[in-house]
Every structure is written in C-alpha cells, then in structure tokens.
Amino acid sequence: MHELSLCQNAVEIIEQQARQNGASKVTGVWLEVGALACVEESALRFGFDIACRDTLAEGCALHILHKPAQAWCWNCSQSVEITRHDECPLCHCPTLHIEHSEGVQIKSIEVE
C-alpha cells in the first residue's frame, strides 16, 4: 500500500509548513491527485488518518481534488484531457501519448 508512504511524506511536509508559520493545529488539507497516479482514494484517506496521528494535523479534514491527465492523440493530432488510460475522448482511438500526469500534490493547508 504505497498510499501510506505517500501520506507519511505529505504529513511531514504539512507539519513542517505549519510549524514554520506558527500554527498550533492543521484543520484542513487539500491534496490534488492525478488521474493516472494509481492511488486508491479510500486507501489514501485511511493512510492519511494513520499518518496524522500525534501530529499537528490529527483530526484535520482531508479534501481530495482529482486532476485529469494531459495526453496527445496520435490519431486525431489533438491534446486531450483523460481520466484513465484507455482511449481518446474525441476519436476513441487508443493511440495516446501521456504528456502530463501528476501524482499527489499538497495544494493547500488550513491552520489555526
């Protein structure tokens, strides 16, 4: 379950940023997950809860934002957004070249 290690790394960064800004508690976190990041949302939520234990982020609200990937279709010569790696949404051809698909990123942190 790589989601747990992703969450542990994210919580380290979140806690570091909260401390640097004089926060006493993290109340909300927004994570952006790329469409092709191979991350299971339920496992991410579970791992995040575990990783937040005994930190400034314990009990904070987790908001997950889903971001489509960018791909180039070799058949219709168009740049398209996709949510899974199967076919072009315009011409339905499977000849896609993935241009950009980010993994998991911390987008925002809410603190007290």
Question: Structural class, from secondary structure content?
Answer: alpha+beta
SS elements, strand count: 6
Largest sheet: 3 strands, mixed
Strand content: 25-35%
**SSE sequence, one letter per element:** HEHEEEEE
In whole angstroms, the N-to-C terminal distance is: 31 Å
Instruction: Provide the residue-averaged pLDDT.
Output: 93
Number of helices: 2
Helix content: 25-40%
CATH fold annotation: hypothetical protein PF0899 fold
Rg over CA atoms, rounded to whole Å, is 17 Å
CATH architecture: 2-Layer Sandwich
Structural notes for this entry:
The chain is of the alpha+beta class and 112 residues long. The protein has a single domain, classed as hypothetical protein PF0899 fold, CATH 3.30.2320.80. It is 28% helix and 35% strand. It has helices spanning 2-20, 41-52; strands at residues 26-34, 61-67, 69-73, 78-82, 96-100, 104-111. The strands form two sheets. The chain has a three-stranded mixed β-sheet with strand order 2-1-6, with helices on one face. A three-stranded antiparallel β-sheet has the order 4-3-5, with no helix packed on it. Helix 1 packs across helix 2 (41-52). The longest helix has 19 residues, at 2-20. It is elongated, with a radius of gyration of 17 Å. The protein starts with a helix and ends with a strand. The model has no long low-confidence stretch (mean pLDDT 93). One of its GO terms (molecular function) is zinc ion binding.
